[in-house]
Design a protein that fits this description.
single chain, NADH Oxidase, 4 strands, globular
Amino acid sequence: MAENRHPFVPLHPFYPGRSPEDGARSFFETMRSRRSVRFFSDRPVSRETIEWVVRAAGTAPSGANKQPWRFVCVSDPDLKRRIRVAAEAEEREFYKRRANDEWLADLAPLQTGPEKEFLEIAPWLIVVFKLARTDDGAQVYYVNESVGLACGLLLAAIHHAGLVALTHTPSPMGFLSKVLERPEHERPFLLIPVGHPAPDCVVPDIQRKPLDEIMIVISSFRAP
């Protein structure tokens, strides 16, 4: 049996000072206003703010606690410009050749296109990388699931800070490794501009699915 390197300690659970129902409802009311934004202000956001939202993302669960993620936070204007140029080159290929007709039809109501000026306007770009192994070469587990969970917490923390973000996924994203000079075992996962919304920011008038379309309750089950 492998040596237990992590002694167990008492849990210190979070108590919101109200019922679970009220706590869950309050969190929903906060998160229901979260929207993906493509119109950013250049209003500055402090490095401290970005550090706190990344800390929150780092609390996510991960396979065997390997924490296979890295958050590269970019505020340098020249580097943001290079990222935009490379991202738009991939996006032009996507809209011209890679996306099929159904995909383009689904995107049409959102009025997206290959131009990504927000990559320069937003004060921060957080490039999320997934680790194919740890920095010292150890194996990692459930990488996509772990990094996906961390990104969910990152978006929630950004929203809770009163900021907006966009999960941008230019495909392929290998250019991010080159531009940011990341090692081979780090693979690009998401490109997330972060900042304040532009004063005239608008978002598509879309609705989330109602609860009865996303939740199934099984309160008792008898095997056949």
